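thought: fold this chain, then report.
action: predict
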Amino acid sequence: MRWWKVLGLAGVAGVAATGVVIVRAERRRQAYTPDEIRTRLRARLAESSEGGPEAVASADRNP
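observation:
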C-alpha cells in the first residue's frame, strides 16, 4: 500500500472514532430527566456558593 492510502484509512478511522465518542456523549446527556438536571445543578450551586442552602432557596425564588 502506498503512504497516502494508509493516511486515508487512518483518517477514516479517526472520523469514525470521533463520531462514536460524540454519539456516546450525546446519549449520556439525553439520558437525564429535567428533574435530575435541576437537582444536579442545584447541588453544584450549593457546593460552589458560600451561602449553601440559602443560595439554592434564593435561586428557586428567581426563575
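thought: worth noting. Residues 1-31 form one domain.
final: C-alpha cells above.
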